[in-house]
């Protein structure tokens, strides 16, 4: 495999994000800042080395908005473009406000409250899967539909303060909003979601609780009026940022472990002792596929000898960075005992994932509980027959298992 002067077209023509490693190795060595064409046909730079990606994520000369918004490359779907637009100054001010409003939601106290709830949810999903398996042909059940998919949205409901009875309605709305194939319906769903959240906020005003909507009501009670649009935007942002990402880490993590019996046995022998390191290794190797974090240059800058001009789009590949041999020994090996523990799976710098502690809590509870309760777990389908998408978040759509 070699890199030519031609622009590479994203997404790469590879069916499976787990197969991108050799291409990344060539890029990191020969063209660590390489010209690519985005799925929408616009030019961008793909950055693949760990040190570059980390440095650029912390570099204030880059921003998530284009210095001249009308000229921005459109990297992929609407969900990714949903972020702030406008000048860098507006972006920075909006961003600081967003982080401030969401800070109480991820405090240590809230995380403790959520931990018990996550454990109850995981145990409930596993109880249902165990019952389902007894009647299922061949004893095969789908861990994606029965655990990985429903868990993160149920947790976000608790985080926001959506009552349990409304969860199903909320989940259906969020799925419709996220559907890239049904533009009109996605808009209708967004309007319905707004209406629902507005009603919820009215209720929290009268009876606040330990949740995001109540935080927002409290934070804004001194202002002239409650900004319902901002609340809806923040909640949609949390859903997009925290749902599929977590679903896919559960799915990929399960694949990593069940296709490496020694790792799975190690975890079942000592779930409490091994789960944290196992989750960090899942986060390292299970990073999103061939797309990455989008940034725009706000001044001309030099990256590895390549001149990047003001307004250029950069795609910072977390997946490539997390597999960089100069940052990790045996970078492609799944090894929770490795010495280098830092990774870029939750980003870095000003936009570092605000939900990282919650995501870690979910992943640790999922894998520790699976190892404890279902030590004989195994895939019921060959891994080559499973579809592993190359989407921005990357993941599986089914996980047939038995035990
Ligand atoms: C930001 C990954 C779970 C909320 C980010 C970023 C990454 C990331 C890479 C940085 C984006 C950038 O720099 O442009 C993940 C992964 C998750 C996860 C892999 C699951 C394993 C969650 C959860 C929530 C959440 C559960 C909340 C419910 C956010 C928010 C941001 C963010 C609000 C934007 C932060 C900012 O712009 O300052 N996440 N995330 N994430 N994440 Fe997560």
Topology overview:
Blueprint (H helix, E strand, L loop, with lengths): L7 E2 L11 H10 L2 E5 L5 E5 L2 H8 L4 E2 L14 H4 L6 H15 L5 H28 L5 E2 H6 L1 H11 L6 H12 L4 H24 L5 H9 L7 H15 L1 H15 L2 H9 L1 H15 L7 E5 L3 E3 L2 E3 L4 E4 L1 H4 L34 H18 L4 E2 L8 E2 L5 E2 L3 E3 L1
Parallel strand pairs: 1-2, 3-9
Antiparallel strand pairs: 2-3, 4-6, 5-13, 6-9, 7-8, 10-13, 11-12
Helix pairs in contact: 5-7, 5-16, 7-11, 8-9, 9-10, 9-11, 12-16, 13-14, 13-16, 14-16
The structure holds protoporphyrin IX containing FE (HEM).
Task: Assess the beta-strand content as a share of residues.
Answer: 5-15%
Instruction: Give me the Rg, rounded.
Output: 21 Å
Output mean pLDDT. 87
Helix content: 40-55%
Oligomer: single chain
Question: What is the name of the CATH superfamily?
Answer: Cytochrome P450
How would you describe the shape?
Answer: globular
Secondary-structure element pattern, one letter each: EHEEHEHHHEHHHHHHHHHEEEEHHEEEE
| Total helical segments | 16
Distance between the termini: 40 Å
Number of strands: 13
Low-confidence stretches: 76-85
Strand order of the largest sheet: 1-2-3-9-6-4
- Stated plainly, the CATH topology is called Cytochrome p450
The second-level CATH architecture is Orthogonal Bundle
Question: How can the largest sheet be summarized?
Answer: 6 strands, mixed
Indicate how many domains the architecture comprises: 1
CATH class: Mainly Alpha
């Amino acid at each position: 495999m070699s890199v030519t002067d031609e622009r590479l077209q994203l997404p790469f023509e590879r069916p499976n994000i787990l197969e991108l490693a050799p291409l990344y190795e060539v890029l990191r060595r020969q063209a660590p800042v390489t010209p690519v064409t985005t799925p929408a046909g616009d030019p961008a730079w793909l950055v693949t080395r760990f040190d570059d990606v980390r440095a650029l994520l912390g570099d204030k000369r880059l921003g998530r908005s284009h210095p001249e918004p009308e000229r921005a490359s459109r990297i992929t779907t609407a969900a990714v473009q949903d972020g702030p637009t406008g000048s860098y100054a507006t972006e920075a001010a909006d961003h600081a406000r967003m982080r401030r409003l969401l800070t109480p939601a991820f405090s240590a106290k809230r995380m403790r409250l959520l931990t018990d709830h996550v454990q109850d949810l995981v145990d409930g999903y596993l109880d249902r899967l165990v019952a389902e398996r007894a009647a299922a042909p061949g004893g095969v059940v789908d861990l994606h539909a029965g655990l990985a998919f429903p868990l993160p949205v149920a947790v976000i409901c608790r985080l926001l303060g959506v009552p349990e009875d409304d969860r199903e309605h909320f989940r259906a709305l969020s799925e419709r909003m996220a559907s890239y194939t049904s533009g009109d319906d996605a808009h209708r769903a967004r309007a319905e979601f707004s209406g629902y959240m507005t009603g919820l906020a009215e209720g929290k005003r009268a009876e606040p609780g330990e949740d995001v909507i109540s935080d927002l009501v409290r934070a804004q009670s001194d202002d002239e009026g409650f900004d319902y649009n901002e609340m809806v935007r923040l909640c949609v942002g949390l859903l997009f940022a925290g749902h599929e990402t977590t679903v896919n880490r559960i799915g990929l993590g399960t694949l990593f472990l069940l296709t490496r019996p020694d790792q799975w046995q190690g975890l079942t022998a000592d779930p409490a002792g091994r789960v944290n390191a196992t989750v960090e290794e899942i986060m390292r190797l299970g990073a999103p596929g061939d797309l990455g974090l989008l940034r725009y240059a706000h001044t001309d800058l030099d990256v590895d000898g390549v001149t990047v001009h003001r307004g250029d789009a950069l795609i910072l590949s977390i997946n490539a960075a997390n597999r960089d041999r100069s940052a990790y020994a045996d970078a492609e090996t799944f090894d929770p005992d490795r010495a280098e523990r830092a990774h870029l799976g939750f980003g870095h710098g000003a936009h570092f994932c605000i939900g990282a502690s919650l995501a870690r809590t979910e992943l640790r509870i999922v894998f520790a509980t699976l190892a404890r309760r279902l030590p004989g777990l195994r895939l019921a389908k060959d891994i080559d027959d499973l579809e592993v998408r190359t989407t921005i978040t990357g993941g599986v759509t089914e996980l047939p298992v038995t035990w």
